[in-house]
Amino acid sequence: MTFVIANILTRSGGGTGNWFLLFLMPAVAAVIILVGIFWEIVDRFIKRFHGCNWPTVPAVIDIVSVAFFEDNTMNPGMTIDFSYYQATLTYTYHNPDQQMGDYKRRFGDKDEAEAWANSYKGETVKVHVDPRDPTRSVLREEDL
């Protein structure tokens, strides 16, 4: 490893420009990954408690779908593939008028996402409805 670093530094005439590539780029990549992980944890925490005190009403899952999202993060010398399949459960409920909402979940495998989504088609679930705005609802993971 030291030979590689020394070789890069001697070829560039001191290598001040290569310090960025050698040391700063991996640090930037690590920060981006950590921010992504932190964001996922915060998002799960918010979803866990969002709407938990709202009243519940029955809802029927009418539409299920799976979509592919391609996300390839490019770094010098390596590619990180963050692509995923997103399964969406779309439900309808009455409070007092007919309303619609959805629940989304990520998967790494298309067949797994489709099997999961299809297992809920036509099922009745309870959703938490905002008492101040009946158009806002939350289907929580615990209620599936």
User: Which percent range fits the helix content?
Assistant: 25-40%
Roughly how many Å apart are the termini? 51 Å
- Provide the domain count: 2
Radius of gyration: 23 Å
Number of helices: 3
| Uncertain regions spanning at least 5 consecutive residues | none
| Largest pleated sheet | 5 strands, antiparallel
Strand content: 35-45%
Q: Give the strand line-up of the largest sheet.
A: 5-4-1-6-7
What do the pLDDT scores average to? 81
Total number of beta strands: 7
Describe the global form. Answer: elongated
Structure classification: alpha+beta
Question: Layout of helices and strands, plus pairs?
Answer:
Layout: H1 2-11, H2 16-49, E1 56-69, E2 72-75, E3 78-81, E4 84-94, E5 98-107, H3 110-118, E6 124-129, E7 137-138
Antiparallel strand pairs: 1-4, 1-6, 2-3, 4-5, 6-7
Report what the structure shows:
This protein has 144 residues and is of the alpha+beta class. The protein has two domains: 2-47; 53-143, no CATH class. It has three helices and seven strands. Strand 4 (84-94) and strand 5 form a beta hairpin. The termini are far apart.
